[in-house]
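Sequence in, structure out.
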Amino acid sequence: MSTFTRLSYFNTVVETRSISEASRIFDVQPSSISRQLAVLEEELGVRLLNRTTRNIGLTEAGRKYFEYSLRIVAELEAAKRVVNDLQESPKGVLKMSITIGFGESVILPLIPLFRKKYPHIDVDIELTERVVDMVEENIDIAIRSGRLPDSTMIAKRLAYNDFILCSSPDYLAQKGTPSSPYNLNEFDCIRYSYPNWKDWYLMDEETEKLPINSSLLVNSVNGQKQLLLNNAGLGLMPLWAINKELERGQLIHVLPHHTFSPYEVLSATYAIFLKRDLMSPKSRVFLDFINEHLGNN
């Protein structure tokens, strides 16, 4: 039996001046009420109630204890209501850590729509490539590319990283278009300087590392895109970062019959969070919202 329950029994007995009435209110046997009051007194080492066959009264210690007990039970009940309200209506601060490229290209443009739908959820986003400790830093959702490093976490795929070899129409008009993956070293190739994305691989029948002319390195997806749009060369870009530019003709898909990747395996971008049974409503509605807008089932 919890201390909270004993305090509730004690308060009700004092207020009703009756163990039998308290037992009716809590729907338990009077003997159970009496037993828990005795345990409470034993824990405190002091008598709280004077009991007679006709009446129940407070001792001096009991009166003092009753003042505090009322406040304690009231505070705990208020805390319970607050938590229940959070579960029923998504609210609070949603803290997320998101990779810079995916955050700027995909997530940030959707945040105003999300806030309009859930105005009681405040959003705190860190755009970073660093590895975060979700528990230590109190992160609700992390969005990353790669494998799930911790078995206590769950990963939900948000988008495949379909890498597109592309360039601007003006660059291709000036320099020509590659005829094969094996003559890319004749062109200016823009590489991402993040260690896991710095090389280019052909992912057709077998995985092959390609020789490329890489005099340009930049440490952000959007940095690469700006260089491409300003005719700096060829780049490997995730489709989610350039789909609008491809549709508008600002960038051209080069060697579309081949599959490329900046590392040796095909990959996706995931939302990472604590096990589902611990997920807060604010996290759950955000993931549902993002999946809906990305066209995921």
